[in-house]
Amino acid sequence: MKISYLGTGIISAAMMLAVGSNAVFGRQIQSAGATEKVQTDSDSLKVLNLAKDLKKLKPLSAGDFKSKFKKEINGYQLTEATAFEDNDTGSYATANYKKGSKNVYLMVKDGAGAGSEEVKESLLSYLELKKIEEPEDKTNIKSYKGWQVYFDYSMYENDQLTSIQYLEGNRFSIVASGNNVPIEELKGLLDHLSL
Asked: Quick one: how far is CA 93 from the chain centroid?
């Protein structure tokens, strides 16, 4: 088989182009993966720095903690609030808000002092979950109040239950559970909560 110089040149150019484009695309893919890793690493570093700062703070007393809950938020009335001090694990509180047949229950952990470890573990676990979430999931990791946090409406269709787990005020780890409360309404209530 006889190939002309022109034919050999065209084949060589095509092969070089194919090899060159694979190298370019390979670098782009690698670069995107590196960007994601850097973002994850910077998020993790942000969490670790927060935990270090929180560890230095003094936890709230039970009385101060309990007084932080507003009597009414978005038409929901505070029906109950309790707070506890624990030197080994940190302070924590619970609150219940009600509007008709709708109910929002809050479990709040003060991240100061000994509570910093729980805050750190929660935020790092949300970052890990973000890596495996699928678009069709009814549990999502979203950015909320400056942090990657957990939104769960997987049980709303059958049981009318929703949940948002997040960090309030760069200090308080909150699990907010809604009964007969759609996820957007629960978020709306939490938008107006400040501790």
From this structure: 21
